[in-house]
Amino acid sequence: MSTIEQIVNLVRNQREFFNSGKTLHYSYRKHQLKLLKNMLKAYEKEIHQALYSDLNKSAYETHTTELGFLYSEIDFTLKHLKKWMDPEKADAPITHKGTRNYIYKEPYGVILTIAPWNYPLHLAIAPLIGAIAAGNTAVLKPSEFTQSTSSLVAEMIKETFDPSFIAVVEGAKEVTKQLLEQRFDYIFFTGSTAVGKIVMQHASKNLTPVTLELGGKSPAIIDKDANIDLAAKRLVWGKFTNAGQTCVAPDYLYVHSKIKSKLVKAIKKYITEMYSKWPLENDDYIRIVNKNHFNRLRPFLSNGKLVIGGGFNEEDLKIEPTILDEITWNDPVMQDEIFGPILPLVTFTDLQHVITELKGREKPLALYYFGEKEKSQQNVLENVAFGGGCINDTLYHLANPHLPFGGVGNSGMGAYHGKYSFNTFSHQKSILRQTTKFDLPFRYPGSKLSFAIV
Ligand code: NAD
Fold first, then answer.
1. How far is the centre of ligand 1, averaged over its atoms, from the C-alpha of 139 (Å)?
2. What is the pTM of this model?
3. Can you name the residues that pair with 213 across neighbouring β-strands?
4. What are the distances in angstroms from CA 208 to CA 11, 107, 200, 351, 422?
5. Which H/E stretch holds residue 197?
6. Residue 377 in contact with residue 391, Cβ under 8 Å?
7. Share of residues in the chain with pLDDT > 70 (%)
């Protein structure tokens, strides 16, 4: 736990270091990104252990959803960084004859990034990749709920980086509050909508720009012409990865009444295939992060009609992959983001009705539509607002570094990944280089010709 004095000194030292201009150079940024990758490689064994201890995360999920993502993101950034850093040429109207116009990418300065517990390594390190690439310094606050990973991240970063460049401050919300009292040049927050609002309130005191990566109830719509078997397979994977503790997991299903029983049957088949007949005894099945979250989720098991799962192990904090049928919007499970391995099912007969209903709710972080007809796909895409998503798949969009990842409305603001991370952590500075060889007269008072300039 850091004292307020240590936090004040840390931010001051980082600002001094940033002002030294060292981070502006391509070679410096490239070197630091390589150090970050080497750090993760060197600590792989400890990372697996920490994630296992915090969430019972299997070697497979640690590789695919935490380390694998970070390695690809660092490699992608290293490959393109030089080009991203180059000033971008911009066009100009005829009134600007003789000028050359550019967009320079300028680092903001000292960044604060606050991470959640559900992918405690991935979501702590991914924003750092963008912050370093764009030439900033950064203070990172990991989640206190996943203490093994938080301590390990602190240790790794301390071993690898000068704290005036990158540093970790550990602790709970009291520490976050102290951090938020400081003047940062950018705040990147990943977490709940409720805390996102607190962060933005603090940021407004200094007009600090923010990116808010938040959550919400992300629906999956399974239409009557969907490929049922594939839909079931991709839904089971998307929902029960990390035991449903994924910001973009399908929170609930809208299923066309004509295919409901076939879909439920296929979902059952894939749950057994991926997690065995007894998921609670499967060593690789992720647990709920802590007792509070377990106790929050448990009452949902008696909502609607239980059709798959429903079992739990209080000692291990595990809940079976569960499907609930006959759910209505009045049920407790439909009031907030579930963030656990419980998938409620709402039936529909008219897609238009689903679209109208979604338009009346908060904009979700993700939406998934399963169906073959392009017209229906377009209907959903054009009429429902949401952060991002897939047609005939779940989660996969977030692993494409060419796509921006972020929410809208209650699910957040701003985006990152790949070039979008670099852009997020860079101010776009517009520069006009004027000629001194001639001077067009029309903008000056007294000129016979006049143009609208501003
Ligand atoms: P959270 O908002 O409770 O906590 C996130 C961070 O904020 C933690 O580091 C925590 O210490 C800090 N914090 C908590 N309360 C605070 C307060 N009152 N003041 C200041 N700081 C505070 O979120 P969580 O439970 O860790 O994560 C789950 C949420 O995050 C879900 O809603 C999920 O959808 C969302 N999420 C979003 C994304 C995304 O990329 N959009 C990714 C993962 C998780």
1. 16
2. 0.96
3. 190, 412
4. 15, 14, 9, 42, 18
5. helix 193-205
6. yes
7. 98
d(CA 214, CA 427): 22
Q: How far apart are CA 134 and CA 115, in angstroms?
A: 19
Give the number of the atom of ligand 1 that is nearest the alpha carbon of residue 141: 9
Kindly state the helix (H) or strand (E) to which residue 10 belongs, with its residue range.
helix 4-19
Calpha distance 267→202 (Å, rounded): 44
Probe target for ligand 1 pocket from 2, 121, 176, 199, with the most ligand atoms within 8 Å of CB: 176
**Residue 110 one-letter amino acid:** V
Name every residue whose Cβ is closer than 8 Å to that of residue 309 and which is 6 or more positions away in sequence: 271, 279, 319, 320, 321, 322, 323, 341
Least confident of 100-109, 179-188, 435-444: 435-444
ipTM: 0.97
451 has pLDDT over 80: no
Name the 3-class secondary structure at 253: strand
Which residues, listed in sequence order, are joined to residue 426 by a DSSP beta bridge? 107
Question: Given the structure tokens 């007969």, which residue do they identify?
Answer: 349
Predicted pLDDT at 405:
98
Q: 């000194």: which residue's tokens?
A: 9
Q: Which of the 8 DSSP states describes residue 24?
A: G
Whether residue 191 has its Cβ less than 6 Å from ligand 1: yes
Contacts of 159 (CB under 8 A, 6+ apart): 39
Structure-token match 């976050």, residue found: 176
Contact of 318 with 288, CB cutoff 8 Å? yes
Closest CA to 338 of 201, 239, 270: 239
> Residue 9 carries which side chain, given as an amino acid letter?
N
In angstroms, the CA 219 to CA 246 distance is: 13
Give the sheet arrangement for strand 210-213, strand by strand.
Answer: 166-168, 137-141, 110-114, 186-190, 210-213, 412-413
Cα–Cα distance, 238 to 250 (Å, whole number): 7
| Three-state SS letters, 168-180 | ECCCCHHHHHHHH
Residues near 86 by beta carbon (within 8 Å), at least 6 away in sequence: none
Q: Whose CA is nearest to atom 19 of ligand 1?
A: 173
Interval between CA 116 and ligand 1 midpoint (Å) = 5
Q: Which atom belonging to ligand 1 lies closest to the Cα atom of 198?
A: 19
CA distances from 398 to 43, 127, 188 (A): 25, 14, 17
Among the atoms of ligand 1, which is closest to the Cα of residue 215?
Answer: 34
Pair type for strands 88-90 and 412-413: unpaired
